[in-house]
Amino acid sequence: MNWVSEGCHRRRKWMLSVVFAGCVLSGISSESNAQDDPAAGRAVVGFTACVGCHGRSRDTKGADEDIPLPSPSGDWILDNEVLTWARKDKHHQSYAVLFNPRSVDMGRLMNIKAVHRDKRCLSCHTGYPQALMPADDQNRVDETWHRKTDVSFGITCEGCHGPGGDLASTDGARDGWFRLHLPPLNPKRPWRFLDPKAKWEQHGYVDVRTPSSKARLCGTCHIGDVSQGRVVTHEMYAAGHPPLPGFEVATFVAQMPTHWRAVADKSDAVARKTRSEFLAKTADPFFSPDTYRLDSLHRTQSMLVGALVSLAQSLELTSGLSQRATGGGGTWPELAQFECYACHHDLRVPAWRQRRPNPVGVPGRPVLREWASVLARVALEQPKQRAQFDSQWKQVRGVLAKTPFGSRLELARTTSATATWLTAQAKQLERRPLTREDGHRVLLEIARVGAAGGFDYESSRQLVWACEVVFGELGRGDAKELKALRAAGHVLVFPQRPVQPVAKGLFEPRQGPSKTVEVDLSKLLPPIGNFDPAEVTRAFRAVEAAVKAWPTRSSSAR
User: Fold this and answer.
1) Distance between CA 354 and CA 533 in Å, rounded?
2) pTM across the whole model
3) Domains of the chain: which residue ranges?
C-alpha cells in the first residue's frame, strides 16, 4: 500500500563509513491545517493541463528537436517534468498498486471490498485532499470516481503542489495558482516573485522550496498526518502493508528522478529570466541575502531541518491519534506509533537488545519509534537548545515510563508541546546558511552519536543517510577514511542504492495494465532481523577518528 518510500530500496553490502483535550490538538493544528485549509474547495485542474509547458522531450528524437520551440520559462525549468514523472517516478504508480494481490489481500483481511475506493488508502496513494473525495457511509468513493479524475495516474502534479483551481471571489484574490503561474504574467504581481505564504494562503500553491515546508509536505504520507487522514495503522501492517521505513528527506529527495532545477543550479544566461533577478526580486524570506547563499550546504541544511520536522510530525501523529481516541474517534494504543521491532524480532540468547537499557528507563515498556529522534540533537547546535530538547524529551519518555503506552491525555499534551517547539527550531535553523566548517562539525557530531552505540537498525540507517548527505556535499567521497571503512561493510537496505546481485529479486516488476515495483518482504526483512549494532558502533568510531583528523578551514559567504 504505502510502498512508495520503499519503492527504490536496494539491498547492498556497503561501507559503514557513515552507518533516529481539544486544546491539546491546537498546538499541532497550526502546522497541519496550514497545509489543507487554503486548498479546501479548490478543484484539481489535472496533470494534462501541465503537459504544454512541462511535457517537452529533451532525451528522445521528436518534434521538439526537429522544430525547436522557445521555452516560456527561459531556462528556469527543465520543461520535461511530466515526462520524468510518468517514465521514472514511482509516485506515478501509487494508485496502480492498490490493485495488486497484496492490496487485494489486505482488503479481504480488513473487510474492505475495494481498497482503491477507500479514503484511508486514497489519501496517500493519490495525494487528493479528503474534502475532494465524496464518499459513502463506509468511507468509499464512488466506483466511477477514478474515471472523473486523474487519480489513475497516481500522485500527479497537484498531489504535491496543491489543487490549482480557482475559488469564488470578486477581486481575483483567491484565483487558483494554475492560472496565475501561466504566461503572460501580471507585471504588477509576477507569480515567480510572490511570497510563498501568499501563494499558499491566497492561491493554494504548496511551498516546496523552503526546507521545513518541503519536509512537512513529504512527511504527511511518509510519516503520517491525522488532520489529512493519512495514517497507517497497526491493523494495516498486520494485514500486509509494507513497513514504513525511517524517513530522511534529503536522502529520499535524492533518490527521486529529478524533475526540478534547484535555485542554486538555475542559469543567469537568459536575459530577464535569471537566477540573479529572482534573488533580487523575490519576496520569499528564505531567499533573502542574509538567509540564502549559493555556496551554502543546502542538502545538509535540508537534512538537519528535516530531522526536526520529522520528529515533530511523528509526535504530532502520536498526539493526534491519542487525542482522537480520547474523543471516541479511534482506539489507543495505536501500536503503529511504537517501535515495531521491539516486539517483532527473533528470540536469541545472548542478544543485543538484552544488553541495551530500555530508552524510557523501565524494562519492557513500549517506546515510540526511535529513528525519528536520533538526529534531533545533531540538528540542535546550541547547548541551550539541546538542554531544552532533553528536558522536553524527558517529559515524553516519563509519560511512557509511568504506564504502558502512557496516559492518552498526558502523552497528547507532552508530544504536542515538544512538536511545537521542534517546529520553531526547524524554522530558525533554515534561516541560517551552512558553511563547510559547519558541515565538518555536523559530520563529527553524527559520528559521535553513532560511536556511542546501542542504536537499532532504523536509527542506524538514519545516521548513515545523514553522513552520506554531508560527505557528498563536502566532496570527500574518495577520502581514505571511506576506503578503510569498506572492510566493515554491513548489509543495510538503502533506498537510494542500485541493485547488486546479492539483492536480485528484491523488487520485481509486475506485468499487467500498469507495471509496478513492489517490495519483497522476504528480501527486505532479513537484514533488519540479522542486524548487529556492534558493527555500526565500530564503524562510527572509525569515522569519528578520521573526521577529527581532517584539516579545518574557514568558509566565507559567496
Assistant:
1) 12
2) 0.86
3) 38-207
